[in-house]
């Protein structure tokens, strides 16, 4: 069967949570939960044909219901940070939860990662998929407008494609992404992965990880990944931006036409031979090295996750865009449609 469906438990308020397994046509498999729209598992073969999971995850629903660093979750309404938990639309100021020091993070404590999404499955010539839908009511977590969101996961050949679509009945802000933590080796740390990001600039941040409003050139800095570079090669360099984030936790600015699909990152892991390409319509990619994963967090199987156990390549708009007029706009108005596509393409690196 291209798609299998299984109830795996309930939320504390009694809502049933289902797990969908997509069996792709290129030996790629993915598991998705209706809770948080969470990508639980993504399995692909290594150079010896051995299947392995390339993202961090948990074995039980209870672990996802508990506190964790957004493993595999859909995050919204606003991925990343909003300064001071405040923004203006017109003459009105909207006040959000401050759940990351003085700032708002990833849609707040009750964001999309804590919601149960409605799901239906489908099968296309290119592969199977699951369509998730959620209606975020006006005022939820402080955001205006009734927002109708559809997120579709499709296994198309060797690629996991995520399509996002949203409409609103009131002017609002929106920035959606998936927060999967990749480890192409299936275990250990990610410092030996090799990363390439074809970007000339990053979005530098202040002490609370809010953008300063500038764009900084990567040339001559630890943030230059224009050529394939070991993730761990410069992560310990005495650099102010690295110190502030405890590693990499920054947005790289992608030079391409707005809304155009383009390659934003290429990740390889030498021991397994696996390679991941990230292709997106978004203007930025947040590269995060799992700096704040709590030491000793119990993960899938007998694994224990800690700092640098996984890395994120989150296609998205820039942090704090509602308060930064020079950044690409994240405003969604009635009558307009929010569309985004991000593709995670798995393959083997050439010898």
Q: Using the CA coordinates, give the radius of gyration.
A: 19 Å
Strand adjacency order, main sheet: 11-12-13-14-29-23-22-17-20
Between the first and last Cα atoms, what is the distance in angstroms? Answer: 34 Å
The count of DSSP E runs of length 2 or more, i.e. the number of strands, is 29
What structural category arises from helix and sheet content? mainly beta
Task: Give the low-pLDDT segments.
Answer: none
Plain-language structure description:
By secondary structure, this protein is mostly beta strands. The protein has a single domain, classed as Beta-galactosidase, Chain A, domain 5 (Distorted Sandwich), CATH 2.70.98.10. The protein has 2 helices and 29 strands. The strands form 8 sheets. It has a 9-stranded antiparallel sheet, with no helix packed on it. It has a 5-stranded antiparallel sheet with strand order 1-2-3-4-5, with no helix packed on it. The chain has a 5-stranded antiparallel sheet with strand order 19-18-21-24-27, with no helix packed on it. It is globular, with a radius of gyration of 19 Å. It starts with a strand and ends with a strand. The model has no long low-confidence stretch (mean pLDDT about 95).
